[in-house]
Amino acid sequence: MIETVHLRKEFGTKVAVHDLNLTVPLGRVTGLLGLNGAGKTTTIKILATLLRQTSGTVSVGGLDPVRQPRAVRRRINLIAGGERMVYARMTGRENLWYFGQLYDVPGRVLRPRVAELLDLVGLAEAADTRVERYSRGMAQRLSIARGLVNDPDYLLLDEPTLGLDAPIARDLRRVVAALAERGKGVLLTSHYLAEVEQLCAHVYVIGDGRHLAEGTPAELVAQTGCHRTVRVAVVELTPRVEAAARAFAPAVRIAPGGVVELSGPGDVAGALTSTIIEAGGALKGLEIAEPTLEDAILALNDRPAAVIA
Ligand SMILES: Nc1ncnc2c1ncn2[C@@H]1O[C@H](COP(=O)(O)OP(=O)(O)OP(=O)(O)O)[C@@H](O)[C@H]1O
After folding, report:
1. Does residue 40 have its Cβ closer than 6 Å to ligand 1?
2. Distance (Å) from CA 41 to ligand 1 centroid
3. Which of 33, 80, 234, 260 is the most buried (most CB within 10 A)?
4. Does 38 sit in the ligand 1 pocket, CB within 6 Å?
């Protein structure tokens, strides 16, 4: 596994990462979340041997990136979204062959690996087409394959779906999930929290370089005390219906279009709709929205770090 203990990185007087303890095991996707400037990219660069920490220790499968950078680089790969990491004038197959040679992968190993990777990312049919003719999603999938050409144990994915259209991002998520199933350890940063919720078995949340919280997405939602929201749409919001809804709970809000909204613990949907019906309201719709990871992250970032730590 990858492990950081008391990791700290300073840039002059700026402390980008404070005392971060992080574990990335094999065989699952681990998330690293935080608002802009939280320290995610700095952490990933330290793991990838691109930056050296100010203090604390890092282990990548038992290896030290500072003392054994070459050995670490053989076991990891880094893919950053939004960056062009493949050559447009070469075919997909040529790109993978070229990067494999840069990693000194022997030809007899590389040949079947390239074919397997093209298959894994769904580019087998386009293998011999130049990348300049690929769609953006195809090029992004080729970047993932490029990141696997040295058969790393760990893959560091920094915003892999940045700027991709929804169907393309969905394809890419399938590939990422398949990698963890094949035993790779994946560390993922993403601003798309639904993606993190779907893929990550464990998530670390950092804010301003500090550890704020960690757990499964569901645990994070539970820890932050975010509640489900019940929305009842009524055909006509008469003063009587409105008064009854407001009397039901002080936290009731009336949203545009006459929608009665209430967030809170427990199951209030039944009681709230009955109250509205008893006051003469006719129902148009009912929605129960479970709290999401996004709600949890926003709640965590609203709290002072000292309170959470
Ligand atoms: N080379 C550098 N010199 C000085 N400060 C830096 C340097 N690199 C990063 N920082 C600062 O360290 C902090 C953490 O930056 P980092 O890029 O790690 O955040 P991030 O969580 O990846 O943010 P984003 O989501 O915007 O990519 C920021 O305040 C940033 O300005």
Report:
1. yes
2. 7
3. 33
4. yes
Task: Say if residues 3 and 22 touch (Cβ distance below 8 Å).
Answer: yes
* 7, 9, 41, 204: residue to mutate for ligand 1 pocket, most atoms within 8 A of CB: 41
- Both tokens assigned to 212: 């704020």
* pLDDT tens-place string over residues 125-159: 999 999 999 988 888 889 888 988 999 999 999 88
Identify whether residues 231 and 217 lie together within a single domain. Answer: no
Boundaries of domain holding 266: 227-290
Q: What whole-number distance in Å separates Cα of residue 245 and Cα of residue 176?
A: 46
Which residue is it, tokens 């009681």? 271
Q: Domain tally for the chain?
A: 2
Mean pLDDT of 43-71: 94
Answer yes or no: is the C-beta of 17 below 6 A from any ligand 1 atom.
no
CB atoms within 10 A of CB 69: 16
Residue 11 Cβ contacting ligand 1 at under 6 Å: yes
Whether 21 and 206 have beta carbons less than 8 Å apart is answered as no
Query: What is the ipTM metric for this complex?
Result: 0.94
CB distance 82 to ligand 1 below 6 Å = no
Q: Is residue 43 part of a domain?
A: yes
The whole-model pTM stands at 0.81
* Residue whose CA is at the smallest distance from ligand 1 atom 2: 11
φ, ψ for residue 34 (rounded to 5)?
175, 160
Domain containing 205 — which CATH number? 3.40.50.300
**From atom 3 of ligand 1, which residue's Cα is the shortest distance away?**
11
